[in-house]
Each structure stands twice: as structure tokens, then as C-alpha cells.
Amino acid sequence: MTNQNYIREIANQIRNKSGCMSLTNKGIEELFDTYAVLAFSKGPAVTDEDVHDAWSAWATKFDPKNGLIVPFDELSPKIKNLDSPYTKAIRSVAADLPAFKL
After folding, report:
1. Per-residue pLDDT tens digits for 9-47
2. Which of 22, 42, 57, 100 is 20 to 30 A removed from 31 (C-alpha atoms)?
3. Which residues span the domain enclosing 20?
């Protein structure tokens, strides 16, 4: 690992794998830090719903008026699919974590 802490290192790996390096939203590092926590806690079992819940917690602080801060089941299939790249990236990074290696 580099001079970053372990959370930020995993967050950056997830961000790289998600293909979303160009995102510059306020607080974006905090969002990916939360995704890193999902990698450590849920590992390859993380779901799109988990990712949406993490995003909702982040958006509550950084975009509180966003109309998508609703339970996952209330989202349209098109909006639900927006979580998939992050879920896949978290699963991929988590699979390489010592706790989840087979």
C-alpha cells in the first residue's frame, strides 16, 4: 500500500475499477470510502441495494434534496442499474482482500 490509509487505498481501487475516475462531485472521496467499507464488510456478497444504501447515506450529506434518496425497491429498473458498475467494482476489489480469498 502507498502512503494512503487502507480505506482510501481500497476506495481508489474501487473507483478505478468502476470507470468513474472523472467524477468530481463534492465529497466523492467520501462516497468511495463508504464503498471501501462495503468491500471489507460484505465482500463479494455486496448487492446493488447495498451500494444504493451507501450512496443514499452519502447523498444525505452532499445532495440532500436528491429525489433518488428512497428505498432501493422504489427505484425504477433503469435507476437500479446505475448501481451495477459500483457493485461489480466492489466485488472485484473485495475478492482480492485477504479475508475473502479462497
Report:
1. 999 999 999 987 655 678 899 999 999 999 999 999 999
2. 100
3. 6-100
Which run of H or E residues covers position 52?
helix 48-62
Residue 1 lies in a domain: no
Q: What is the pLDDT of residues 73-100, one digit of tens each?
A: 999 999 999 999 999 999 999 999 988 8
Alpha-carbon dihedral 79, 80, 83, 87, rounded to 10 degrees: -170
Total number of domains constituting the chain: 1
DSSP assignment of 7-44 equals HHHHHHHHHHHHT-TT---TTHHHHHHHHHHHHHHTGG
Output the pTM of the full model: 0.90
